[in-house]
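Hi support team,

I'm opening this ticket because the web form for multi-chain structure prediction keeps timing out on my end. I have pasted the exact lines I submitted so you can reproduce it. The total is 478 residues across two entries, so I didn't expect it to be a heavy job. Is there a limit I'm missing, or should I split the entries? Thanks in advance, R.K.
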Amino acid sequence: MSTSGLPSPDDDFPAWYVEVVRRAELAEHGPSRGSMIIRPHGYAIWELTQRALDDRFKATGHENLYFPLLIPMGLLSKEADHVEGFEPQVAVVTRGGGEELEEPLAIRPSSESIIWNTYRRWVQSYRDLPLLYNQWANVMRWELRPRLFLRTTEFLWQEGHTAHATSDEAMAEALRMLDVYRQVAEDVLAIPVFPGRKSPGERFPGAVETFTIEGLMRDAKALQCGTSHFLGQNFGRAYDVTFLDADGHQEHAWGTSWGFSTRMVGATIMAHGDAAGLRLPPAVAPIQVVIVPIYRSDDERASVLATADGLRADLATAGIRVRLDDRDQHRPGYKFAEWELKGVPVRVELGPRDVAAGRAVLVSRLGGDREEVALADVATGMVGRLADIQAALFADAIAFRNANSHQITSFDAFATGLDEGGGFWTGAWCGNEECEAEISARTKATIRFLPIEPREPGSACMHCGRPGVDTATWARAY
RNA sequence: CGGGGCGUAGAUCAGUCUGGUAGAUCGCCUGCUUUGGGAGCAGGAGGCCGCCGGUUCGAAUCCGGCCGCCCCGACCA
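Hello R.K., no limit was hit. The queue was backed up. Here is the completed structure from your submission:
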């Protein structure tokens, strides 16, 4: 732990991010290129996010299962768009048992291929459908430009893979899971997101439609926070997953897949952090309340720690994740700074004066204002206090996102506005991929999303002037 | 793959140009004093100077080769 300050997020956001991740002990680089060691404080955030997702998957009728890490290359290659899209990013095992392998094994970049290859045997009748499965796994994509949490060669995620008897049912599933992602991003991570549909150029390889939730980070750059894909019958056909429908017709199954990853730990850092470090939403804060005892003499130490431990027990009983920081080697000021850096939502200060008066001093990570609260009332009021902080963080992020979301009045205004302040920019688009590519080349922005249902803007494309066929939202993104 | 940088103590880095007993700061350990916003003093531990070879009486330093990592761009959750 260093004793000097962080880089300013306003002056150098990337440096601020790297330093926060390192000093808050969230993660560090692994020994191989692009790899990440997730430390306990970072992993705990992921575990809480996992639980929030998994509860919602179960509530919507899904079950967990697990498929192998290694995928025979021949299997991966069956869906043409899929293999072409992933080819540059796939790591391949060519040796095993001291010998060259007959058939190389891909380390999964995603599991559609191995799962649909298995669904072929699991599905014969419409009565076998739907299959509503999810797996928690690591995947590997040989990224050229790694960045802790946001883009590492290996990352942790969940991938849902469902099979359905009808197109409508599969589409409904893809949109239902997109909404689950929206709920977790907004209600748990306190990151407001726009749900939408990707342009054809930004689609998942092998998907018919890709849906996304898009968030805005503190530097006004966008981040894709989760994706849900409507696969049509592409994988059903490629892996020959067929069933007899109620009328006795042989049909290919319809599919979806959807993923949410450890990237969202990075998003949580970048959506809420400030000059002092992390500001964690209470819902995913590994420590929601830290108690910092203050004392001089041994007598004071004994009485303060006794009272503090009672307070800790009360808070734990109330279901709150609480830590009593009784380390003797650091003074209070050091602990204040450290727990602020680590994003703990509420700090409780307890000194001899407080013990004598039967109260504690509560300080919120958001405002920093100090409040004296009777000891008996600390635990009972804490659940509500944490809920208030959760809501305030979300409101703060919404205000920031809204202040940085703009309607495009002209291409020049859009390009200039992007240079000056980033943010989301929404305007009429002709639907032409070449036009999209030209805009991207000129502005370094990409289409983040289109409306779920195409929306005719009733005006000309902001770039080429042809008739607008859809309403695109652009941003520079991670 | 293109451009840039770096491998020296747990961390960050100086020392390399100009070869001559391995350094600083933070952190760590011990003791004392401290403790309501990142404490002070004293003592101490900790190094195949990325790897291999060469030049030299002598190499962290010069020469050759190799390996690895980081940053910026193209690919992406």
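A quick check on our side: Chain A has three domains: 13-272, 282-393, 405-475. Let us know if the file doesn't open in your viewer.
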